User: Which sequence fits this backbone?
């Protein structure tokens, strides 16, 4: 498995509630719609929780505060599967549709993204 990790920051004109609502209610269904064309095996949204417990966990490890709003995790069977989907007309159209939508709610220039190899250690 290959996992795309996309750390998200919202556009400056959006407040937290608007961002989280849009990501869940507008963008998630769009990803679901295009999952087959892109070879997506799984998609998860990790929404940041700003709680006293979050701050306590950070402080216990000496971690700096974060200005990220969430993380999107996208799983693919392999790099080859990811690449193959990007070469089809359907995959290209799906990728373009997702990018167009991401520009509506993400500050893309400040959103790190990378690919990882998935090595599960603990699974339920």
Assistant:
């Amino acid at each position: 498995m290959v996992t795309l990790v996309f750390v998200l920051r919202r556009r400056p004109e959006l407040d937290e509630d608007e961002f989280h609502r849009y990501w869940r209610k507008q963008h998630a269904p769009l990803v679901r719609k295009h999952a087959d064309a892109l070879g997506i095996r799984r998609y998860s949204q990790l929404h940041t929780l700003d709680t006293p417990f979050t701050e306590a966990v950070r402080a216990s490890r000496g971690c700096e505060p974060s200005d990220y709003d969430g993380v999107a995790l996208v799983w693919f069977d392999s790099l080859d599967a990811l690449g193959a989907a990007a070469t089809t007309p359907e995959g290209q159209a799906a990728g373009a549709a997702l990018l167009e939508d991401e520009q509506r709610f993400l500050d893309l220039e400040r959103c790190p993204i990378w690919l990882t190899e998935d090595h599960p250690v603990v699974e339920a």
Summary: The two ends are 17 Å apart (CA to CA). The helical segments are 16-38, 52-61, 79-87, 89-105. The mean pLDDT is 95. The first helix runs from residue 16 to 38.
